[in-house]
């Protein structure tokens, strides 16, 4: 069963069994995990970093950017997690998947080269940043800070 919405839980360690429809986030280990939202049950791990996925949390909802393409799985599902909603994206051809993976490798190389040599041009974002989901970003940060306690 395809999910249209999801909940989230902040955890230190990922549980051994991931519940359907839940996005687990470990800030300690900069990782998010969930079962594929298409319903196939495969475990999806998304590392959080400047060259992988970015997390947006506004205190009420959680988003990941860029999209998640499970092209190595039989389901080949492709979706965006935005504001606790699963936004289903279209399928991608093998050629398109290869192009995305090649671009990821190039962007990572450039990013780390730029960190070592500030003369290297910064990596442009392939996708626009997420628009704020909340009109009160301070409230979201306050909840994050309170959570870290």
Rg computed from alpha carbons, rounded to a whole number of angstroms: 16 Å
Class from helix and strand fractions: alpha+beta
List low-pLDDT spans: 128-149
Number of helices: 2
The run of helices and strands is EEEEEEEEHH
Helix content percent band: 10-25%
Indicate the overall shape.
globular
Q: How many beta strands in the DSSP annotation?
A: 8
Summed over residues and divided by their number, the pLDDT gives a mean of: 84
Offer a few descriptive terms.
single chain, 149 residues, alpha+beta, four-stranded mixed β-sheet, four-stranded antiparallel β-sheet, 2 helices, 8 strands, 23% helix, globular, disordered C terminus
Protein described:
This protein has a 4-stranded mixed sheet, with no helix packed on it. It has a 4-stranded antiparallel sheet with strand order 5-6-7-8. It is an alpha+beta fold. A hairpin with a 2-residue loop joins strand 7 and strand 8. The protein is built from 2 helices and 8 strands, in the order E-E-E-E-E-E-E-E-H-H.
